[in-house]
C-alpha cells in the first residue's frame, strides 16, 4: 500500500498528486480500449474548496474508454497512476496556458460540463478564465477490451469503419423480420458511427452509401437525411444536398436555423468550386 499523504509529481507540467487512500494489487493495464470506472469530485482552489461537481451526488460513477471516447488525455494520465480502490487528489493548474493549444477540456473541463450535476453558477466564467482545480478520483475498476461488451461509442475510428456495415446489415435483417423497434436501434447505432467517424475521416461517399440504405429502409429518419446532405455538400452534389436539407425540414422544422446555416455553406462551396473550374478550364476552349 502506498504511503498516505504522499505527494507525487506526475512528470506533466501543472500536475501534482496526493494519495489519500492507498489502492490494492498491481497497477492496472491502461491499454487503448480499456474501460476505467471511477468516481470524481472537482473543486476550486479557494479557501472553501468549492465543489463544482461530484459523481457521487448522482450515485453513478464515471466511465471512460482509454484512447477512444473523449479527448481527456490528462484524466487518462491521472487514472493511469492509480491502483484499484485508490483515492487520490490531483492539483491541476491550467492558468497561463493557451486554451487552443493545451485544450482546457483535457483537464476534465469538457466532461465537467457534460456531466454537470451541482448547478455551479460560474462555469462560463471559469471556462473564460481558467483557474487551478482539484480533482479527487476514486478508481473502482479497470476492464480490458475483451472483458466488457463494447458499444459503438466505445470503438476506435478503425473499428467504427468496420462496424458500420455490420450494424447496417443487422438492421436490415431485423427490418425484414418485422422487428422494427430493434431495427431502428441498429440504424441509430450506425448513424452514430457515421457521424463520429466517417464524416470526420472524410469518407463522404461511404456516408452517402450507408445513409441512403438507412433512408430506403426508414424514410422518416431525419438524422440520416441530414448526414447525407452534409456529405453531398462536401462532394459538391448541390441538387442532392438541397433535396436532403428540404427533407430534413419536412421531418423536423426545428432544424431550420441549422439548415439555413448549412445551406449558406453549400452556396459558398459551390461558388468556390465554380470559380476554380473557370480558372481551370479558361484556356482549354
In short:
By secondary structure, the chain is an alpha+beta fold. It has helices spanning 55-58, 73-80, 99-102, 109-114, 123-128, 157-176, 180-198, 204-217, 222-234, 238-251, 256-281, and strands at residues 7-9, 15-21, 35-44, 51-54, 62-65, 87-92, 133-143.
Notes on the protein architecture:
The protein has about 280 residues and is an alpha+beta fold. Helices cover about 45% and strands about 15% of the residues. Strands 1, 2, 3, 4, 5, 6 and 7 form a seven-stranded antiparallel β-sheet that branches. Strand 1 and strand 2 form a beta hairpin. Helix 6 packs antiparallel against helix 7 (about 180-200), helix 6 (about 155-175) runs parallel beside helix 8 and helix 9 (about 220-235) packs antiparallel against helix 10 (about 240-250). The longest helix is centred in the C-terminal third of the chain and has 26 residues, at about 255-280. The radius of gyration is 24 Å and the shape is elongated. The protein starts with 6 loop residues before the first strand and ends with a helix.
What is the fold's blueprint, element by element?
Layout (H helix, E strand, L loop, with lengths): L6 E3 L5 E7 L13 E10 L6 E4 H4 L3 E4 L7 H8 L6 E6 L6 H4 L6 H6 L8 H6 L4 E11 L13 H20 L3 H19 L5 H14 L4 H13 L3 H14 L4 H26 L4
Antiparallel strand pairs: 1-2, 2-6, 3-4, 3-5, 3-7, 6-7
Helix pairs in contact: 6-7, 6-8, 7-8, 8-9, 9-10, 10-11
Amino acid at each position: 500500500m502506498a504511503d498516505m499523504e504522499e505527494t507525487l509529481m506526475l512528470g506533466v507540467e501543472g500536475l501534482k498528486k496526493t494519495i489519500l487512500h492507498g489502492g490494492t494489487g498491481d497497477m492496472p493495464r491502461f491499454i487503448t480500449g480499456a474501460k476505467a470506472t471511477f468516481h470524481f469530485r472537482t473543486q476550486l482552489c479557494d479557501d472553501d474548496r468549492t465543489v463544482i461537481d461530484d459523481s457521487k451526488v448522482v450515485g453513478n460513477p464515471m466511465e471512460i474508454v482509454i484512447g477512444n471516447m473523449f479527448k481527456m488525455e490528462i484524466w487518462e494520465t491521472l487514472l493511469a497512476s492509480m491502483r484499484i480502490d485508490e483515492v487520490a487528489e490531483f492539483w491541476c493548474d491550467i492558468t497561463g496556458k493557451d486554451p487552443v493549444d493545451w485544450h482546457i477540456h483535457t483537464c476534465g473541463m469538457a466532461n465537467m460540463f457534460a456531466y454537470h450535476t451541482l448547478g455551479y453558477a460560474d462555469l462560463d466564467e471559469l471556462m473564460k478564465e481558467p483557474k487551478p482545480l482539484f480533482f479527487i478520483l476514486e478508481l473502482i475498476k479497470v476492464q480490458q477490451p475483451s472483458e466488457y461488451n463494447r458499444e459503438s461509442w466505445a470503438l476506435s475510428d478503425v473499428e467504427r469503419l468496420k462496424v458500420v456495415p455490420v450494424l447496417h446489415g443487422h438492421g436490415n435483417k431485423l427490418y425484414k423480420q418485422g422487428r422494427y423497434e430493434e431495427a431502428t436501434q441498429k440504424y441509430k447505432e450506425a448513424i452514430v458511427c457515421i457521424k463520429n467517424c466517417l464524416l470526420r475521416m472524410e469518407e463522404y461517399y461511404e456516408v452517402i452509401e450507408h445513409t441512403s440504405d438507412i433512408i430506403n429502409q426508414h424514410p422518416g429518419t431525419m438524422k440520416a437525411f441530414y448526414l447525407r446532405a452534409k456529405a453531398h455538400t462536401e462532394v459538391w452534389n448541390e441538387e442532392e444536398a438541397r433535396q436532403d436539407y428540404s427533407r430534413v425540414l419536412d421531418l423536423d422544422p426545428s432544424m431550420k436555423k441549422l439548415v439555413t446555416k448549412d445551406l449558406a455553406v453549400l452556396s459558398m462551396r459551390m461558388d468556390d468550386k465554380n470559380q476554380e473550374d473557370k480558372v481551370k478550364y479558361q484556356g482549354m476552349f
